[in-house]
């Protein structure tokens, strides 16, 4: 007779008077439960390994992933024709010249203007800030039952790139200037990801108003301080900004916008949309040797099994991928191909600075973009910060104030575990330097600065 483990068919004849049969029944049930757990474990393992690659790609793209099989919710189901996405046809703001920062007054009617703000649903810092602002607006409306006004602002400056180039450290040092006030979130990624719903898994778009809400505390401070000033011969000097380092390169849904349809590569990218609403904005771009940037990016975003050898293999796969693509398509078409980016094992395209800069210089004047090297910033942070403050037209700081700016510890340094991985292999560096070389030359020509050839690293 075939065995059925500790349970046999006859064991199921239960008699409450037979203690031995009760024990056997318990053993049988335990055995069946263990079998069920084993099956569940196997199924979960299969599911994990089948979606692990997708999950890592989402991490590298810094998006909130909602899985549907092996794919995120299809972008085609999103409301791409929604007029709230049509920035190029939006009416432009008329900024109040009494403020240095781009700000304007608008009517305040609702005592709870943030009731549906999407940012508050996934950021505690934003939620707390908006709750405090709601109390202030209720108090203001209580003094004028019909309506009142509030100052609204957009950023005076953006740090637009690049990841793993010191942008976090740079932003927080800028924020230490007495005339700079910052929002509760350093990187909002609204222009590149939020407005089209990518940041919330395409479940909804994030309206422009929700983005502007994030700067309401900043605007309130500006309004309050300006009203108490004795002399108003000059614009109020406080400014704000943010550091969404995806702005320079990330246009993941360009092909879904009606204005970009039927093109093989985007006609309009982030700079076009930003320029429409903020034509005089100041932009800061900090970059580093693209070979070093890529290795730092790999160490930061890959969760496990990191090694110089694995990085080398990933570089081989990705350089071949983009080289093969550029043989039959334009380089620009290749780097804006999101499917290609997902297939790539490392974010090589982020180091093709010249291709992206071409897009920005097509829209903005050269003197609106301050371009820095991380290598120079690391060697002489005081000189770099003084250049930034001059570019932003901020007042010169005293020696005590600049000391306060510089004493802040460096942000986002490489972790101890990543340092144990060691340096990239020499053959990997040689391969990357060769690949990036023509793009570095073009970048150096665009900015008229030979330092961006990174010859000191060869």
UniProtKB/TrEMBL annotation:
One of the Pfam families matching this protein, by short name: Sulfotransfer_1
GO terms, biological process: hexose biosynthetic process
Assigned keywords, A-Z: Membrane, Transmembrane, Transmembrane helix
Entry's transmembrane regions: 21-48
Domain Sulfotransferase span(s) in chain numbering: 277-417
The name this protein goes by in its record: Sulfotransferase domain-containing protein
UniProt KW Transmembrane helix keyword: yes
Keyword flag Cytoplasm: no
Gene Ontology molecular function, alphabetical: N-acetylgalactosamine 4-sulfate 6-O-sulfotransferase activity
